[in-house]
Automatic annotation (TrEMBL):
Entries under NCBIfam families matching the protein: dnaG
Zinc finger (CHC2-type): 49-73
Entry comment, domain topic: Contains an N-terminal zinc-binding domain, a central core domain that contains the primase activity, and a C-terminal DnaB-binding domain.
Functional note: RNA polymerase that catalyzes the synthesis of short RNA molecules used as primers for DNA polymerase during DNA replication.
Quaternary context: Monomer. Interacts with DnaB.
Presence of the UniProt keyword Transmembrane in the record: no
Gene symbol of the encoding locus: dnaG
Reactions this protein catalyses: ssDNA + n NTP = ssDNA/pppN(pN)n-1 hybrid + (n-1) diphosphate
EC code: 2.7.7.101
Positions of the UniProt region annotated as Disordered: 453-477
Protein name as it appears in the record: DNA primase
Classification via CDD domains: TOPRIM_DnaG_primases
Length: 631
């Protein structure tokens, strides 16, 4: 579940320390700071889910196993996962916060599994964050000086008063070569720390000078609110640098992951299920102040896949929960190109994606200044689906009064319709495209199907596909037994482990149950587990299937179908019933096979199958007697 995030770190936290954090963290204490929990019987707690709107509590917490699960939205996990979802933190950040809470000193290891080290990387991060915090205060103080008048006037011309400047931490880099550098060196920051942080840089003379000079600055914060970099706006004509200058790549500032304003917008984004992507710092400020608190902006780079990852986490953008992403671009050619590029990126979103373009080609900051806060809110409210914008843009390049123009426009637009991830919308867009082109629906439909690259049937294979074995429904007796067996493995592995592991995957028929059973084996088997959140998370991590991951969380807190505590006899009865269902299915298949065998011409095959049938029937009788105790 989180393994890929841990592995991606240059120095990951030791597995033993992560396990210790889970062991020493009271999940009830962590969650009760956000959710009001009440007893649900059996030692479990229940409350209203913080991740979706509900009137009846379906959010369950199991303190005994240190896990939680919501039967309403399917979210679940341990205390680390709860912090990730509730506070919009990364895995590493969540572990570090819980470790600090529990008084645990984390150790880190290199990605090549070399010897553990005590926290220089984390110590470095703290030092770089501290240096940026000190720089913010220095730059903010400079904004009030006489030399910063051009910066104050720049903000005022764009409709931002002193309160707005303070809210966003705006500052000014003064006209001096090393004023910030000297200030930070006096506070104990080293030469290497300032260079690594991107706050200072070596001059040709060898001395250390400030990276930013004579510029208006915006501090750039991460999801937790820590300042990790700056964006600097050119103010003077004799400044030969770029219009905007950003902090370079550093250990804490990765521009492909950073979204300006995310620290102030994250809670509203999660609450509203909506994010507005704008193009600049002043656009974020204008949107927030105008009543659009979900606005964010990229920092010196194009909107890309890593930004999508950040927003998906905030939007809870899954197959079941669709967020809303609204891009605002200028109406000029560059803005249109950016919008079409966003359409390609949008295919990575499950959420609905829109575009908002001002009729006067003004960005949100200009629009607020010219027409007020309401105009900014109206801009967002009048958004249109991004696919509509993309189709209109493509079609506009062709002369639809000619046959060649209509056909070429159809060919260019069909792939856009084929890319629409919501398949139920495609037929409607086929009809819309046909109407816009003035063509019959059939050729447009064929063009879209061709663009979708549907795999052709094999040329020489004329046999009908063999039907798959019927899968038991989720409420069938077989599925209920499979579910109970998996619950025993997850909740009481010390008791159920040996008997559970002895029954292999072929005994399970429901595909999601098969996936969970395989994950239990991949996690080392139930017999070797000690239970609790670490065991459950290891099984969840081993699941390749998203549905299986969700089911693990659900089964971890679902009560067993027995009054009181399970005992070895209950485990034995459950596993016997599980096997009995599998064996009787094999008996039916074997009887059918025997009926198709000619005992005269295939005597050996016939007697082998008949002997196997007798053995299976004997096994079934023994299982039936063992399972006679009932669930």
């Amino acid at each position: 579940m989180y393994g890929e995030e841990v592995a991606a770190m240059a120095g990951r936290i030791r597995d033993e320390d992560i396990a210790l954090v889970r062991e020493r963290t009271s999940i009830a204490d962590v969650i009760s700071e956000t959710v009001t929990l009440r007893s649900a019987g059996g030692g479990n707690l229940k409350g209203l889910c913080p991740f979706h709107d509900e009137k009846s509590p379906s959010f369950n917490v199991s303190p005994a196993r240190n896990v939680w699960y919501c039967f309403g939205c399917g979210a679940g996990g341990d205390a680390i996962k709860f912090l990730m979802d509730a506070e919009h933190l990364s895995f590493i950040e969540s572990v570090e916060r819980l470790a600090a809470r529990a008084g645990i000193q984390l150790r880190y290891v290199e990605s090549d599994n070399s010897a553990p080290r005590s926290r220089p990387q984390q110590g470095q991060k703290q030092r770089l964050v501290a240096a940026h915090a000190a720089a913010v205060e220095f730059y903010r103080a400079q904004l009030t000086t006489p030399g910063a008048r051009p910066a104050r006037e720049f903000l005022a011309r764009r409709g931002f008063d002193r309160a707005a400047a303070e809210r966003y931490g705006c500052g000014f880099a003064p006209d001096g070569w090393d004023l910030l550098t000297k200030h930070l060196r006096q506070q104990g920051f080293t030469h290497d720390e300032l260079v690594t942080a991107g706050l200072s840089r070596p001059a040709r003379s060898g001395s250390l000078i400030d990276r930013f000079r004579r510029r208006l600055l915006w501090p750039i914060r991460d999801l937790t609110g820590d300042v990790i970099g700056f964006g600097a706006r050119k103010l003077f004509d004799d400044d030969d640098g770029p219009k905007y200058l950003n902090t370079p790549e550093t250990p804490i500032y990765k521009k492909s992951h950073v979204l300006y304003g995310i620290d102030q917008a994250k809670r509203e984004i999660a609450k509203q299920g909506k994010v507005v992507v704008v193009e600049g710092y002043t656009d974020v400020m204008a949107c927030h102040l105008a009543g659009v608190p979900t606005a964010v902006a990229t920092c010196g780079t194009s909107f890309g896949a890593d930004h999508i990852g950040v927003l998906r986490r905030l939007l809870l953008d899954t197959d079941a929960v669709a967020g809303e992403i609204i891009f605002t671009f200028d109406g000029d050619a560059a803005g249109q190109k950016a919008a079409l590029r966003a359409f390609d990126d949008d295919q990575r979103f499950v959420g609905r994606t829109f575009i908002a373009v001002s009729p006067d080609n003004m960005d949100p900051c200009e629009l607020r200044l010219a027409k007020g806060d309401l105009a900014v809110r109206d801009l967002v409210a009048r958004r249109e689906p991004l696919v509509d914008f993309a189709l209109r843009h493509v079609i506009s390049r062709y002369d639809l009064d000619t046959v060649d123009g209509r056909v070429e426009a159809m060919r260019r637009a069909a792939p856009l319709v084929a890319k629409i991830k919501d398949r139920e919308k495609r037929p409607e867009y086929v009809r819309k495209l046909a109407g816009d082109l003035g063509m019959e629906i059939e050729p447009v439909q064929r063009a879209v199907l061709a663009a979708a690259h549907a795999p052709p049937q094999g040329r020489g294979d004329t046999a009908a596909p063999r039907p798959a074995p019927a899968e038991p429904t989720v409420d069938s007796p077989q599925s209920m037994v499979e579910r109970e067996a998996l619950k025993l493995a997850l909740q009481v592995p010390v008791l159920a482990g040996p008997m559970f592991d002895a029954v292999e995957a072929p005994a399970y028929r429901h595909p999601v149950h098969v996936a969970v059973r395989a994950a239990v084996a991949a996690a080392g088997g139930a017999a070797a587990a000690t239970g609790g959140a670490v065991w459950i998370e290891s099984v969840r991590d081993a699941c390749d299937d998203l549905a299986a991951k969700a089911l693990v969380g659900e089964l971890a807190v679902e009560p067993l179908r027995i009054d009181g505590e399970p005992d070895p006899r209950y485990v034995s009865v459950t596993m016997a019933r599980l096997q009995w269902g599998s064996v009787t299915g094999r008996i039916r298949d074997l009887k059918s096979k025997i009926q198709r065998i000619n005992p005269v011409s295939n005597k050996d095959e016939y007697f082998a199958a008949f002997g196997e049938l007798l053995s299976l029937e004997q096994h079934a009788r023994a299982l039936r007697e063992q399972a006679a105790g009932g669930l």
